[in-house]
Amino acid sequence: MEIQQETCINESLYDVLVIGAGIAGEESALKLADMGYRVLLVEKEPSIGGKMILLSKVFPTLDCAACITTPKVSETARHPNITILTLTEVEEIVRDTKNRFSVTLKKKPRYVVEKDCTGCQECEKACPAIVNDQFQFNLTARKAVYIPFTIANPRVALIDIDNCLLCGACEKACPSNCIDFTQKEEQLKITAKSVIVSTGFKLFDPIQIERYGFGRYKNVITSMQMERQLAPTRPFNNILRPSDGKVPDKIAYVFCAGSRDHTVGNPICSQVCCMYSTKQAQLLMGALPMADVSLYYINIRAFGKGFDEFYEQAKDMGAKYVKGKIASITEKENGNLILRYEDIATGKVTEKEHDLVVLSVGILANPGITRVFKKERLETDALNYIRQTDLLQSPAITSIEGVFAAGTATAPMDIPDTIMSAGAAATETSSYLARLS
Amino acid sequence: MKKKIGVYVCHCGGNISDHVDIEKVKAAVRDEADVYLVKNTLFACADSSQKEIGSDIENEHLDAIVVASCSPKLHLNTFRGVAQRAGLNPYNYVQVNIREQSSWAHSDNKTGATEKAILLVKAGIAKAKESEALQSLKIPAANVVAVIGAGVGGMKTAIGLADMGTEVYLIEKDFFVGGRTPQWGTVSPNGDEGAILTEKLYKEVVRRPNITLFTGAELVEKSGSIGNFDLKIALRPRFVSGNPSTEAMQRAAEACPVAVKDDFNFGLTNRRAFMLPAQGQFPQVPAIDQSACTRCGECTAACHEVDLTQEVQTITLHVGAFVVNTGFDPYQPAQGEYGYGELDNVITLPQFRRLMEMNESELVFNGKKIKKIAYIYCVGSRQDDDEGNTYCSRYCCTATSLTAVLAKKKFGNIINFHFNRGIRTYGKHELVYEAASKQGDIFLQFSLKSIPQIEKRGNKTYVKVKDILTAGKELETEADLIVLVTGMVPRKNELLAQQLKIPTGRDHFFNEIHMKLRPVETVIDGVLIAGTCQSPKNILETVNSSMAAAAKINSVLTKGELSLEPTLAKVNPAACDWCDNCSKACPFDAILQTEINGKKVARVNESNCKGCGMCTPVCPTDAIDLAGYTNAQVESMIDALAEA
Amino acid sequence: MPKILVFSTEKISDPAIDLAGLLKKHYPYTVYTISVPCSSCIKPRWIMHAYEKGFDGVFIAADGSDCSYGESCSDRTAEVVATTHRLMKEKGLKPSQLKMAAICSVCAEPFVKHITSFMKDLSQKEN
Ligand SMILES: Cc1cc2nc3c(=O)[nH]c(=O)nc-3n(C[C@H](O)[C@H](O)[C@H](O)COP(=O)(O)OP(=O)(O)OC[C@H]3O[C@@H](n4cnc5c(N)ncnc54)[C@H](O)[C@@H]3O)c2cc1C
Ligand SMILES: Cc1cc2nc3c(=O)[nH]c(=O)nc-3n(C[C@H](O)[C@H](O)[C@H](O)COP(=O)(O)OP(=O)(O)OC[C@H]3O[C@@H](n4cnc5c(N)ncnc54)[C@H](O)[C@@H]3O)c2cc1C
Ligand code: SF4
Ligand code: SF4
Ligand code: SF4
Ligand code: SF4
């Protein structure tokens, strides 16, 4: 059974290889699959959905992100024309004939037989090894054997072998006998007529900006960590600050952390952080009615449909927007933080105390995938995003014929813009495939 | 009657269970007759829960299921799919909305929310008991799309569709395609020329045999529904046939004695009733503006291709769907708004862009050389609720920064003052703002509470503002030209909106069905929206949305058939006495007369029936019902909800 | 507290009622909704059935001019209301126990206003 499946994959010819199963990859894959094309969707993480599935709610509609994205995720997972490989990375893509790419994939072992796991989590209970949970952005811990998060798809356990003690406790605990330590990394070879790169974005790591104290001061966290605290699959049932588990009541947002900043090599605006911070502020004011939320900004980029109204609504709800660039953050003994900034409204350097600071971290390009293209070069632009060679006429076209780009792989953008860019990539790919035949 | 019903109550992570006592709900419905099992799920929509429901259906041989969770608008199809895959007819599935209509609506009252949830679930069970298996109908669908509007957006939609094998009618109201893009000269973010972009697109359009372009064309009538729409298109006469030579065109235009304001230059110049295409407008064939033409015949002598006898033609087309790409208009400032229409040196950004195109090396307006330019941002955008447009127009901060850079580059000695409300050059556009700052432009910021004041003293114009960036200091500057950075508004399109029934939002742009995940679809099946008619966008965003609309509608029509919702009207011939009431009530001609055993009765034509149910209340003998909404179903739901 | 049955429409007014919930615009919990494709398909006998079973009021959240099934919807719905009013009179019910208003797909606020004032009217009449 196992082997059959493997040879089936090995021999497969796909119309499209989609790399990265965030909302962009899913949307492109679904549109092409609906048109009747065979799609292979490759995701390096153990579960699909990208960043969106981890968000709390979405601006400006305040729809629950999990609720609106899970239908997309399941539709993708179930589509008869889509094959998904998780824990899989692309090693190499070379054009073998004029119109075909030969692709080498590396599938990491899960150490759990995917089709047999029922997601009962007995193994998690048995496992003695505790490590930071990357899907909660290290706010909480998980076991070495774990299911990534409640609404993960596939909702199947995996073993983080680097942290596993090899004690075998999970093997004994598993009622369906699906722990398998003998699994090995597999190399798969497939052929694809076209490729869509939808590898998304990276988050700026604020440890680079020393004056913000991230990594040193416990109560300085990133916006992604706050997203997790506000999400329905949140780790705690409340908003807590890390140093002492106290419910914060004076929260500060520091905008443009790692964006619009030549000193960290990222001169552009990240396009989403003003709005997601505004969203978080609204959610925080809802969850903690007594809390004071101040947002320190340079300019508010509330430009899209319904955004400016959403920003005005946050102000009406009591969010304090302060125009001023943060010069430094210092920590007090009780874990509170002093923000020093020039208050543009008064022109004076001012200090203010907060008990939790959220850094509105920016979006960065994730250009690693360009290295797998051999013989032909997948070019990037000056900011390391995939270069769109015919930007205004055919935005999905890249420097390689037959390779297209979708979503935040090309520029920072929010979810609707990502959906539209992915739709454009689907049209471009389908048109290309039609020309081939 | 269904006898083995499975009921699933969802926590929705906490969205429901925070305000509704799930255990109480389960306990209250467990003993309902015909309920076979009751379970709770953390996320009913998660794949694992879906699998569980599916295997319950198979293993326990459930004959109906009820999921009490969020609004059916989100997950009705998800769970219908679960049922179908497990071998249960999808119409034996009932979704009960205990989130939007209970836990959230009554989050202030946990007891009340729980009580309501219990009754809603009981009503759902009652509906499921009475539910019947329905089969969906397949109808042929035309893989043909009418694209309305041929700006960059419409042309990209058409090209994308054509390349995927869909036949396209590209319908442009104007006599020339290209929309607004050719009006701007150099465009951001890559310095392309707008006119060259539209030229390339036009060439791609005419090269494709499966795109038929109509100019001077307007949709005047529409009937039918997705897969099969019938339309009437009115073609206004161009009064020019064939392809006159450039010289003949020029001569005819010069001969024409009627001058009117030239829209392409936003009224800065005049044109003739005999209209010449501008650079970037296509086809490069002239047209006569019927509303201005006096039929004097002067042009006929100069140009043999003129034919003043042409009349409006109406053609009919059959299409499967529409993509609406009707674009935007620049906001038109009110008389006196920042001195517009009153001071002779106040113009809009679109006018200024035309002025820049028309001036070669020196920037001159009304005979006066321009050196100092004051741009006033957010005109017609970000206004107060009661005043007008509350939205941000998205494109204009970037376009103005670019304009300032281009003006300085082209005309040298220019000083730009930007009176803004916080610059919104999002994403990569930040680099344009940076370029403007680097060349020495001056940025001053105001708030809606204290907008810039414009004053004419002698023959000089001054702009005064309380500048937020310098702690509210009052600053004043002299300006030779004041440019109002006007926002985007949707084009006036009453006839089209009325024909296609596309809902508009508070901002008057066409509204999508779901802002986040379905940005190009509308509530009307088979009518999609793309480009700036949905919301302000730049060219790149317009092109992306247009190609996304192409992908969406191609994926629906490409199979050549559609399956229809089977919630249709059904006649009980035994009770029907053919009074004709139902057929008169039906807006879709879906009821025919037929004879059964010599008795005249009504019959439903299923491919016409839309399932509105308008025919059902008018029947005096209760002989016609809507599937899924029979008396038994609705009344048993009422019984359940009425329980004390 | 009086009990109200609301007939909403799947594409137009039900989304508005959902939106009211999403925005946590609270209204009394004794308001129950049955959603149908179009307000013009509501049968007078259903409304009468509701009164018979103990509902104090019925509210039709009509499509109004937004109806995707065409303009005749408004007139047809008005006819349904007129017929029902006749039947109500026969049974000695007050016409004010049946209310109708057009609720567009984003009319969350108007819906809540209509329903709370209807609720108030009904409870005053009861006392
Ligand atoms: C804190 C925060 C809050 C936000 N809130 C909102 C909001 O409220 N509303 C909104 O509209 N937007 C919001 N956004 C933006 C939103 O997250 C993005 O628009 C969206 O996630 C982009 O989707 P994507 O598919 O392009 O990228 P991603 O979500 O990054 O997905 C890329 C996928 O590719 C995979 N991948 C990467 N490299 C490889 C490889 N080499 N091989 C295989 N797979 C690979 C990744 O694992 C990932 O699954 C927010 C962003 C942040 C950071
Ligand atoms: C001053 C200014 C500067 C700009 N600069 C830039 C820039 O530098 N970079 C950039 O990316 N963007 C820029 N833009 C934005 C750009 O103009 C738009 O993104 C683009 O024009 C949108 O294209 P569209 O196809 O949606 O609409 P439009 O260009 O408006 O085209 C719509 C078409 O639909 C037709 N139409 C309308 N109604 C009907 C109907 N009922 N039936 C048939 N046809 C109909 C119209 O006649 C028109 O041809 C600028 C805008 C302005 C105002
Ligand atoms: S691996 Fe076994 S124990 Fe762990 S979740 Fe899967 S089935 Fe349960
Ligand atoms: S979106 Fe806002 S916070 Fe983010 S980089 Fe741009 S201006 Fe800064
Ligand atoms: S883009 Fe800039 S100028 Fe345009 S409305 Fe928004 S803030 Fe105002
Ligand atoms: S349900 Fe509507 S469309 Fe169908 S027959 Fe009745 S009135 Fe006509």
TrEMBL record, chain C:
One MF term in the entry's GO annotations: oxidoreductase activity
InterPro entries documented for this protein: MvhD/FlpD
Signal sequence interval, chain numbering: none
Protein name as annotated: Coenzyme F420-reducing hydrogenase, delta subunit
UniProt entry tagged with the keyword Iron: yes
Organism for this UniProt entry: Paludibacter jiangxiensis
Source species taxonomy: Bacteria, Pseudomonadati, Bacteroidota, Bacteroidia, Bacteroidales
Source domain of life: Bacteria
F420-non-reducing hydrogenase iron-sulfur subunit D domain span: 4-123
Alphabetic keyword roster: Iron, Iron-sulfur, Metal-binding, Oxidoreductase
